[in-house]
Specification:
two-stranded antiparallel ribbon
């Protein structure tokens, strides 16, 4: 394969089209970044803002 310096591979993209290979290329190192764990952060019981929000939500449901 002779690179024709189209610089598609230098773009900050997960996939690109390589003219020299005449095919789409997927960068492997970017696939590792795509897999992340879901983190549940935010509302916690006992936090003042959570309790105020919970009470307002319950009032709306009861009405």
């Amino acid at each position: 394969m002779n690179c024709i310096n189209c610089e598609n591979c230098k773009l900050d993209a997960k996939t690109y089209f390589c003219i020299a290979q005449n095919d789409f290329v997927i960068k492997e190192e970017s696939l590792a970044d795509a897999v992340t764990e879901k983190v549940r952060a935010g509302w916690k019981k006992g936090v003042k803002e959570y309790e105020i929000h919970r009470r307002k939500a319950r009032k709306e449901v009861e009405v």
